[in-house]
Design brief:
- It is a single chain.
- This protein is mainly β.
- The protein has a 22-stranded antiparallel beta barrel. It has a five-stranded mixed sheet with strand order 6-11-12-9-10.
- β25 (435-445) and β26 form a beta hairpin.
- The two termini are 41 Å apart.
- InterPro entries: Beta-barrel_TonB (IPR000531), Beta-barrel_TonB_sf (IPR036942), Plug_dom (IPR012910), Plug_dom_sf (IPR037066), TonB-dep_rcpt-like (IPR039426).
């Protein structure tokens, strides 16, 4: 691999193609990329490293006795108490208390987060926020954008196991001016390696259906350095036919702290192979998929009055999808599996300037997304052998580059906090034209316990490669799609007191335009394919109420009841279409969602955690009968599940047993794929300080 050549001409820089195979790591930049206003070295090595965890020690928040939770719903560092947005923080203590063994199970307990599990225990799930689609949420790992450009189905393919997650932070609502394009309806950041002391941890879990999970991690903290390493494997025979899986994870997170700088290095790899029973169509229940994700990032932050933050990162995702597993029972027309390889290469920059009138953040982000496939993209002149696949060949490819510039100013005066900013976005697929996406939020403490807040933000989402290019016997993509855009208005009130109660009530209205939909003219002849277009507008309105209570603080002197958490969300959507046009899109959002959990003591060192879920989904799905070859339309039915976890905790080890879907309820998250019934698991966690 040759060193990258670059040419600078005043404010314009040209990156040239890297030497190597056509799917080499840096071939993401397989044509000239023009970047205005930044020099090459400064942008690459001092690009901004956006994270959720920042703080402001001069904040007025200390005066009103609120917990100083570090979050980022702005580009300017701010405390949780200053934010005029809805940000949910899930701590390690919360994670350990809940009866969950995967990231998707954990997210189920967040209001206005919709998790539709296609496979159990983190195999594959679609996640959306506030009634958006699974393509409209940005996923970050320690502040680095790892969203998949091929399809949102792969967004939760994190190169790290659930046991290594120390904290999750969810921004509900648009985040374009903070994170850039594709933070359309929300953003979720997973944080690892936050332990400050050297330690070794191990986890062994086993359950019904041949389920097991083995994992070990270690943190070595020495002087100014800290290293976190984790390795995990999990597998099951499946709860019904063709739902088996095998997952491997390897992850490293290193940190170096000096008096003036902070460096972070992340390296991760995950390999998932799983039976995909009815994942994408119930007509072929013997589907199979294998995905491999490789990830690396390097971040830098200066500890100065006007700090500079930066990161460079790379993510490769390899996907093989088999409509007929191992070609068993394959139809005569089925000639090959689907192969996809995506490379994402990015760098970013952020700096904050303090003055008497507040803090101003300025930054930029560049992200190159490439795909090689035998289904998605434009035809290649020559075919390429698919790496690691005996019979796979790439026949199509595409590349696009997105560049964003950010400007934001925040000001806090006594109980008032205001922030306004904008993102300017350019994309190679759109001819490098500028589009502006502004935002504004404000919050005010009425007293020491009560805050009101509101915001207006505009956001966009670039089409995925599946939107642009996917085709089959009944549908065809559209390479000329425009980005989806939306303007969101939200407001609410937050309450917190010293008696152990915190609560939030909020409402939002999102007005979406150029929304991507599958459709065709009503008078189209039989056999006309459905195609993607920006034909419709969708308006979404939602309400949310959350209350958390520390019962030991509320009821002094008792130790049995520990905590209770309740949340409820409600959504409504309407869509406008031109006359004479049929839409294939079916509203299948969560109309009502209720989540609750209760933690209490039992005896000795034993504790119990109960969790309940109620979901009522709009829309319908086709239930296919293989024997008769017929399909009937069924409405989604509301369901309620109950989970239980028992924990016996000692300083060096923890024993636990849990039962999910304790009432053995039959239900489906998506389509005809019914979720597991009652599933019992048991395990032990070992914790050793060094």
């Amino acid at each position: 691999m040759k060193i990258m050549n670059y040419i600078t001409n005043e404010s314009v820089m040209l990156f040239k193609k890297w030497q190597g195979t056509n799917y080499a790591i840096f071939n993401s930049l397989n044509r000239y990329v023009r970047i205005g206003m930044l020099s090459a070295i400064y942008f690459t090595f001092l690009g901004y490293g956006q994270t959720f965890a920042q703080t402001d020690t001069a904040s007025v928040s200390k005066k009103i006795k609120l917990e100083e939770v570090k979050v980022s719903a702005r580009r300017v560092p701010a405390l949780y108490s200053e934010i005029g947005r809805v940000v949910t923080v899930i701590t390690k203590k919360d994670i350990d208390a809940l009866p969950v063994q995967s990231i998707d199970q954990l997210l189920e307990y967040v209001a206005h987060v919709d998790v539709r599990q296609r496979g159990v225990l983190g195999v594959q799930s679609d996640v959306s926020v506030r009634g958006g689609s699974f393509d409209q949420v940005m996923i970050l790992l320690n502040g680095i954008n790892i969203t998949d450009p091929q399809t949102g189905h792969h967004n939760l393919n994190l190169p790290v196991d659930f046991q290594s997650i120390e904290r999750v932070e969810i921004l509900e609502g648009p985040g374009a001016r903070i994170f850039g394009s594709n933070a359309f309806s929300g953003a979720i950041n997973f944080i690892t390696g936050s332990n400050k002391d050297s330690q070794i941890n191990a986890n062994i879990m086993a359950g019904e259906h041949g389920l097991y999970k083995l994992g070990a991690s270690g943190t070595i903290a020495h002087g100014k350095t800290k290293s976190f390493l984790a390795v995990n494997k999990s597998a099951t025979d499946g709860y019904i036919a063709n739902t088996d899986f095998e997952i491997y994870n390897l992850f490293y997170h290193g940190q170096l702290h000096t008096d003036s700088e902070h460096l972070e290095l992340q390296l991760g790899y995950t390999d998932k192979g799983f039976g995909a029973n009815s994942f994408y169509t119930a007509r072929y229940p013997n589907q199979y998929e294998q995905t491999k994700t490789t990830f690396a990032s390097l971040s830098f932050a200066s500890k100065t009055k006007n700090p500079i933050k930066s990161s460079v990162y790379w993510r490769r995702h390899h996907d093989r999808f088999e409509l007929f597993r191992g070609n068993q029972g394959a139809a005569t027309w089925y000639t090959h599996h689907n192969y996809h390889l995506t490379d994402v290469l990015g760098a970013n920059l952020n700096t904050v300037v303090s003055s008497a009138i507040g803090k101003t953040a300025m930054g930029a982000d560049i992200r190159s997304e490439s795909i090689w496939s035998n289904v998605l993209g434009f035809d290649m002149k020559d075919t390429l052998k698919t790496p690691g696949e005996k019979d796979g060949f790439f026949t199509k490819k595409h590349n696009r580059t997105n560049t964003s510039f950010f400007l934001e100013h925040s000001y806090t005066l006594n109980r008032l906090s205001v922030s306004a900013g904008l993102m300017s976005n350019l994309n190679s697929d759109l001819g490098w034209s500028f589009d502006i996406f502004p935002g504004f939020d404000i919050s005010y403490w009425l007293n020491n316990n009560l805050k009101i807040y509101g915001s207006i933000n505009k956001s966009l989402r670039m089409p995925t490669y599946t939107d642009l290019f996917y085709s089959s016997s009944t549908i065809i993509g559209n390479p000329d799609l425009k980005p989806e855009e939306a303007t969101t208005y939200e407001g609410g009130i937050k309450f917190k007191n010293n008696g152990g109660i915190s609560a939030n009530i909020s409402a939002f209205s999102r007005r979406g335009k150029n929304m991507i939909d599958w459709g065709k003219p009503s008078d189209a002849p039989d056999g006309t394919k459905w195609t993607t277009s920006n034909i419709n507008d969708i308006n979404t309105f939602g309400l949310e109420a959350v209350i958390n209570a520390n019962l030991q603080e509320m009821i002094k002197g008792q130790h049995f009841l520990q905590g209770i958490n309740l949340s409820y969300s409600w959504l409504n959507q309407d869509k406008s279409l031109p006359s004479g046009y049929d839409s294939r899109y079916v509203f299948d959002y969560l109309k009502h969602k209720f989540s609750g959990s209760l933690q209490h003591a039992l005896f000795w060192d034993m504790h119990a955690s109960w969790a309940v879920q109620y979901q009522d989904r709009m829309g319908s799905y086709g239930e296919y009968d293989i024997s008769s070859g017929t399909e009937i339309t069924k409405d989604y039915e509301a369901f309620c599940t109950l989970d239980l976890k028992l924990t016996w905790q000692k300083p060096r080890y923890t024993l636990y047993a849990e039962a999910t879907n304790l009432l053995d309820k039959k239900y489906t998250d998506i389509g005809q794929l019914y979720q597991p019934g009652r599933w019992v698991k048991m395990g032990v966690k070992i914790h050793l300080s060094l």
